[in-house]
Amino acid sequence: MRQLWRWFGPADGVSLSDARQAGAEGIVTALHHVPTGDVWTPEAIAERQRDVAFLEDGRSSGLAWELVESLPVSEAIKTRSGDWSGDIERYCQSLENISDAGINTVCYNFMPVLDWTRTDLAAPMAHGGTAMRFDLVVFAAFDLHILGRSGAVSDYDGAIVREANARIRTLDTIERSKLAENISAGLPGAEEHWSLGSLRDRLEDYAGLGRDQLFQNHVAFLEAVAPVAERVGVRLCCHPDDPPFPLLGLPRVVSTADDYRALFDAVPSPAVGITFCTGSLGVRPDNDLPAMAREFGPRLFFAHLRNVSRDRNRIPCSFFEDEHLEGDTDMVTVIDVLLAEERRRAAVGCPDFEIPMRPDHGQDILSDSGSGSQPGYPAVGRLKGLAELRGVMRALQAVDARRSGV
Ligand code: DNO
Q1: Residues whose CB is less than 8 angstroms from the CB of residue 189 and which lie 6 or more positions away in sequence, other chains included
Q2: What distance in angstroms lies between residue 297's CA and the mean position of ligand 1's atoms?
Q3: Which of 87, 129, 149, 294 has an alpha carbon 20 to 30 Å from 50's alpha carbon atom?
Q4: How far is the CA of 404 from the centre of ligand 1 (A)?
Q5: Global pTM exceeds 0.90
Q6: Which of the residues are catalytic?
Q7: Residues 117, 187 contacting (CB under 8 angstroms)
C-alpha cells in the first residue's frame, strides 16, 4: 500500500520533516484556505505543490502531494438549492485543474452540515496519553441544552435523555462552550465553521429534507461530476459519515454497506469509489469491515486505517479512538483483504495497483500533548499507528510471498 500522511499545509504543527521521519511516502492535503464552492485555481494548486516539495530549510522534502482530501461539497449541492449548478460547474473545474496538476484521487464527503464530530478531544487513556471520544450522553446534552434543538428529545432513548439532563448540570460555562466549539466549529479538515446561531440556520435548511432526498441529491451530484472525473482521469472517493448514524436530526446516506451499494447501483461510473475509513465505518457493529473490503475491492480508492472501541453494540453509541491494532475492527484481516485486492489489480495489469492509505488519526502520546498539532493528527501517535500498520503489511506480504514461493 502507498503510505501517505495528512498534512494541513504550512500552518500545521507537524512538519513535512516529521512526516518523512515517520516513513511517509507521500502527502494528502487540500487547499484549506479556499472557501467551499470556489474554484481551486491552477496557481493555488501549484503553490501548495511547492509547499509540499520543500522542507522549511529549503531542501527537497522528497514528498509530493499525491491525493486531495478533501474537495468539499457545498451545502447548496447537498441540499440541491441556491447556486447548485454554479457550484457543480466550479467543482468540475477544480477537478480538471487538480488533474492537470497530476493528482488523480479526490476524497469528499456528503455529510450534511457537520464533518466528523467528537465531544472530547483529549479523553485520558489508561496508558497516560489521550484520545478522541464521542460520548452520546454528552452529545445529547449539547443538543438538548446548549443548541436547544426543538424535537431533539425524541431522537434519544429515555435513558440517554435522563443521563444528558444530569450531565449538563456537571458542566461549567467553560466546559459548555468548549463542547459547543468542538461540535459546531468543526474539527480539522472540516472546511466550514459554524457558530451556534449559524448551525441552527443550517439545520433549518434541512427541515423536511429526508434520507431519500439527500440520497437523490448525492446521486445528482455524482451524475454531474463523474463524467468529468472519468474524462480527466480522476477517482472520486466518498468518505463515510463519521459517526455513521444521524446527528442533530440530519439524514445520513453513507454509513453502511447498503448505502455504498445503493450509490454504486445508481451511479455505476468507474470513477466513483470509497474512502474506506475503518474508523468511521467501524463504529457500527453491523458493518463487517473485511467483508466490505472484499465486496467493494475495485472501488477502494483510498484507505483511512484506524480503530475505535464502542461502548455498546447498538446504534447510536459512544466510542473512543483506540490504538490502531486494538478496538472493534479486525485490522489485520482488513489489511490482508486490501493486500489481496492489490495483488488482484496487479495481476490484471493495473499500473497503479497500490491502494493509497494513511494512518488515520492517532492518540496523543509522549510529546504530542501541547505540541500544537491538529486534534487527531499528532506526530508521534500517527507515527506509532503507521509503524504498526506497516508492520502488519510487511508481515502479511512476507507470509504471502513465502506461500507463493516468490
Ligand atoms: C477526519 C477526516 C475527515 C475527512 C472528510 C473527507 O479526520 O477523515 O475530515 O477528511 O470527511 O471529506
Answers
A1: 6, 8, 30, 32, 69, 70, 115, 116
A2: 21
A3: 87
A4: 37
A5: yes
A6: 239, 277, 304, 360-361, 377
A7: yes
